[in-house]
Amino acid sequence: MWKRPTSAAGRRCKNGDLLNAAEQNGFDLLITTDQSLKYQQNLPARRIAIIVLKSANWRLIQTKLDAIHDACLAIDEGSYVETEI
Questions:
Q1: Which of 33, 51, 69, 85 would staple 64 via disulfide (CB 3.0–4.6 Å)?
Q2: Using only C-alpha atoms, what is the Rg of the chain?
Q3: pLDDT digits (tens, 9 = 90+) for 35-74
């Protein structure tokens, strides 16, 4: 199951706030296209696994859903993975 922010406030929150809220609400995984996240956050202190897609092009992402799904199944808690799509 996946979820995305539904409120304008949820879509505007800063990465640290988003990661905190995700962990506090029991999320195991965050998928993002924010390639600078690793420079902005203290990721080793996180429990949530993070997959960074190296493209934000929705049409390209749609053609790679199987590979993204496989990455979701393979990632460990607290891991950070950047994936070319």
A1: 85
A2: 13
A3: 999 998 889 889 999 999 999 999 999 999 999 999 999 9
- The helix (H) or strand (E) run that includes residue 70 is helix 65-74
What is the extent of the structural domain holding 68? 8-83
- For residue 38, give Cα distances in angstroms to 33, 41, 60, 67: 12, 6, 23, 22
Which pair of structure tokens corresponds to residue 12? 């505007």
As for how many domains the chain has, the answer is 1
Residue 3 lies in a domain: no
- d(C-alpha 82, C-alpha 69), whole Å: 14
Residue type for 20, please? N
Residue 23 resides in a domain: yes
- Could you tell me if residue 2 is inside a domain? no
